[in-house]
Amino acid sequence: MTGVIVVTGGSRGIGAATCRLAAEAGYAVVVNYASDGAAAAAVVEQCRASGAAALAHRCDVAVESEVVEMFDTVEAELGVVTVLVNNAGILHRQMRFDETTVERWREAIDVNVVGAFLCAREAVRRMSTRHGGAGGAIVNVSSAAAYLGSPNEYVDYAATKGAVDTLTIGLGKEVAAEGIRVNAVRPGVVHTEIHARGGEPGRVDRVAPQVPMQRGGQPAEVARTILWLASDDASYITATTVNCSGGR
After folding, report:
1. What is the pTM of this model?
2. Domain count of the fold of the chain
3. Does 2 score more than 90 pLDDT?
4. Domain of residue 55, residue span
5. Which one is catalytic: 147, 154, 157, 236?
6. Residue 233: how many CB atoms within 10 A of its CB?
7. Is 157 a catalytic residue?
């Protein structure tokens, strides 16, 4: 595979695994991060060790001006983006829905929904043949929470991922004739630090017995699904969401 891939939230978890595998596959890699520059720099070094061009770019995906600036900078330094992985997301501490606040909802919507919208819009403006682009692929990272609902934990997060699913369907159909494929992957319980941020570091082990495969997933397993959807091997697939959840 060749081209330029932007992975939002690329400094950790599924995003970092996607960056590393993309580098091995021959992409030039952009590791987007919001705050942890050291972690992003470490991923960049891992990508470069695979022989790939790579850079880290700090950008809050919920801020329009920063998103536009990121795409402009990437184009100037590496070339036009050919793959966008909308992976950046925020998860708040587990609690009942009736205990949550408007501030929490707005932050989740800003990062998980508006951020995905902004990045996808900027990618389309550059990839679409309608705008003189050469096409490309967008892969949105949703969650099994979108269809499970996450009761008593984070209904708000689940709802934002439902919005990502709908974005995938609508945008995928809208730009299908413009050289852009838009798909999504829904991870299930995966061994990343996101569960600690939700207040339960051991959540994967607790939930694993509910998974038909009887285990949590690994970030690389999700990353391989993302890169497959971005690749020519999935050339006739768009507006589709693939579950990567061990059958749950």
Report:
1. 0.96
2. 1
3. no
4. 4-244
5. 157
6. 11
7. yes
